[in-house]
Amino acid sequence: MSEYSREEIEGKKSWTEFVVKEDLDRMLAQHQLRRERQETVLKHYEFRFITRSGTIRKIFLTIDMIPGTKRSVASLMDITDRIRAQ
Question: For residues 25-35, b (16+ Cβ closer than 10 Å) or e, as one string?
Fold first, then answer.
């Protein structure tokens, strides 16, 4: 999806580098809330994702904390084509 290899991303890039600037503050706020008050944070929302080539993709994100940790797990679904078709 990102046009990067696993080796180019893991331990080298932050998830924030893939978020369109206008969506980043909202996502950072959700990220912080997820660690402070899990019960009030969104678990599903959309954002715009930037690929290596600069293409903007519309993503549906599902995210939650891994119980007993400060880590989260996320699923990203590219809904760009569906949005265009609508």
Answer: eebeebeeebe
Which helix (H) or strand (E) is 31 found in, with range?
Answer: helix 21-36
Residue 50: enclosing H or E segment and its boundaries? strand 44-50
- Amino acid 61: pLDDT: 97
Note the pLDDT tens digit of each residue in 24-48: 999 999 999 888 887 788 899 999 9
Of 11, 13, 15, nearest to 23 (Cα)? 15
Fold exhibited by the domain 6-85: Beta-Lactamase (3.30.450)
